[in-house]
Amino acid sequence: MLRLGKTKNHPSSVLHNKDVLKYKDTDMSVYRAIVEANEQHQDDAALIFMGKRISYKQLICQANRVADIMTSLNIRKGEMILLGANSPQAVSILLACSKIGVGVMILTDRTTSELFIHAVSDIDIPLIFCTNDVYLRFSENNAADELSHIVILPYDKPIGEDCSDKEYSESSSNICTWDVFLNFKITECAEEVWGGYFPLTISASTGSTGAPKGIVMENRSYIALEKIVRRAGFDWNRGDVLSATLSTGVVSGTSLLLLVPLMMGLTVLQHPRYPGKYPFATFLKDSALYRANILFSPPSLWLAMIASFSGELDLSDVKCAYTIGEAVSEVEYNTITGFLKEKRAKDRLRNMYGMSETNSMVTFAPYNLKNPVCAGVAVPYNTVSIFDHDTLKEKQYGETGEIFIYTPTAMREYIYDPKETKNFFIRDEEGRKWVRTGDLGVMNHNGELTVLGRISQRFVAPDGKCVYPYIVENVLKKEPEVSCIKMVNMMYNGKNVYSVHIIPNQPITDKDALAEKLFAILSDCKDIPVLPKLIKIRDSFPKNQGGKVDMLKLSQEKDDFIDCSNYAVK
Questions:
Q1: What is the rounded (10 degree) CA torsion for 356, 351, 262, 158?
Q2: What is the pLDDT of residues 23-76, one digit of tens each?
């Protein structure tokens, strides 16, 4: 049982006098919300893709046709389909499934073959929509043969110019192109399902845990998030163009950066994802070309794009620029904000914090935020507090502990995993259900949250003392030679040690000398009871599909480390 503090020194005290979203406020499908919000604006652009503007009328018309075809194929409420694409066709498929109550399992680079086989074989999924490269990846295990229908989507064709890879013909037993699918004979029109409490998406987390759990989001989670964005006073208005590096394969890419903007009448600039290419390759240029007003990207991608960009760029139409998915340091914040200012954007960088299981966002940086580097304050209808990870007793302002969240946007469950679902949620003394984030954080008296890292990444010394990555990282971030730093646990010669990964500000010729200097700095810090075993000087960090640093891959690396065992300890 979660033990809440009873004084104003505890963040949860706001629960006693705050308003909440009621069931009836979110009991609507995403399809119905988008249709009703845009009934009087059907000619407005919903999407921009490959230079073409796709209207709300075109998008909804195609969604209705897809819903009719799926109904004619006897796909009903409560069933599940697979989707692997980042395109306007994928958006119409999502809306069609919301209309008829079908869940969409979104395939990404983190979807394992085991999960794919389980979905196809054990759940009897009848249909997959995907691009050719996704199909080829999963067809190797022959599980795709059990699907009744495989529809190959085009990589780079907007709605209205649909055509697909002609390698696949109508004569194939269970494979057809998107064009052929759209011409399927309709024998039964779709009946719209009303309400919001049925699953819409099943997505893999892109967090730092390395565990691609299937996160089930109901329609009501998306409806609640839209109401939160409106209530928070975001400067998002009909006709604004939103551009983001995150695709529909990421929870926030589906929710905050796609379906929520469409509910608000915005235009979403979709960046096509080709095999072997990154979706953010032309992000900055396209954002300027299509006069985007709202930009989203994780800090590491902001920095990568800034470092590789050259030439003129006019971002004077940008009125909101956000970082999402990772904590941002003061140096990183100043670099990104300086770039935006140089390119004539109208706003500084604004930080957010959330997790896939809470449908992306639970804190944001308002205009009057005192500390722009922190994760911001809780959004409306949400409560964020700090608890002791072991005793579950609420901490006071200024004390470090695990971040817990009370939110109406929380997931329904981890699919096929009731044990992990149960462990993820915890009820308080009054029966309210909180989310355990696994993140370490601290909150000041202004309600500003600072995220310090993952609790699971702490290193426990033989004497029981804990070393948290943020302590080591904060020490070395102050050094002029260091641009970015990550610390991870790893197995080395059969022992659990921690390694420090450094990206230098400039190319380094003597990596050993830099490693020895950084080790000496750490050994002189009394707050670090256990020194790193390994240091690695590198050019870049591996990224997951969400654009965040892939901590799992870092922990699995074995080569090019500098062993610190022989360095002198001060």
A1: -90
A2: 889 999 999 999 999 999 999 999 999 889 999 999 999 999 999 999 999 999
